[in-house]
Structure formats: C-alpha cells, structure tokens
Amino acid sequence: MIERELTVPNRLGLHARATAKLVQLLSAFRSSATLTAKGREVNAKSIMGVMLLAAGQGTPLKLRVEGEDEASAAEAVIALFDRRFDEDS
C-alpha cells in the first residue's frame, strides 16, 4: 500500500473536468485507490465519490493506492497533480 499527501493545485479545484481526468487515469490500473479529505474517504475511481469531496484549490488530500500496480498508479496521479490537471499554465 502506498500513501501520499497531496494538495489540490489547480485554481478551480477538483471540479468535473479535473475529476474526470483523475478517474479516467486511475481506471487504467488494477489497484484500488482512495482519496481522503475533510474527514471523508472516497473511491478515487468514482466520479461521484471524488466530486463529493468538494475539494477546492489548496485542499489537502491523502491518496491511498493498493494493488499489483500501486507504484505506477500512484506515480501517475502525482504527475497529474504536478501538472495541475493540465489546466493552468
């Protein structure tokens, strides 16, 4: 199991488009993934679950990935956050 602390970097937070990118990215991996914020843990492969976090810019999140390809999945999510969901320049 891999756990990482992340912060929502993009100006609009985890809105529908950013959430869809995250879920689509994670759907390529077999590992399970969860996000925790504001005391709520959700399935990171569920658009509705991630949207329920209502995570705006600067919100701290905990990513937990577990499974056979957990390292690759975690690296891909971290890269997406580092790229600010390809939204901000």
TrEMBL record:
Keywords: Cytoplasm, Phosphotransferase system. It is found in: Cytoplasm. The keyword NAD does not apply. It comes from the Bacteria. Transmembrane segments: none annotated. Residues 1-88 form the HPr domain. Belongs to the HPr family. NCBIfam families: PTS_HPr_family (TIGR01003). This is HPr family phosphocarrier protein.
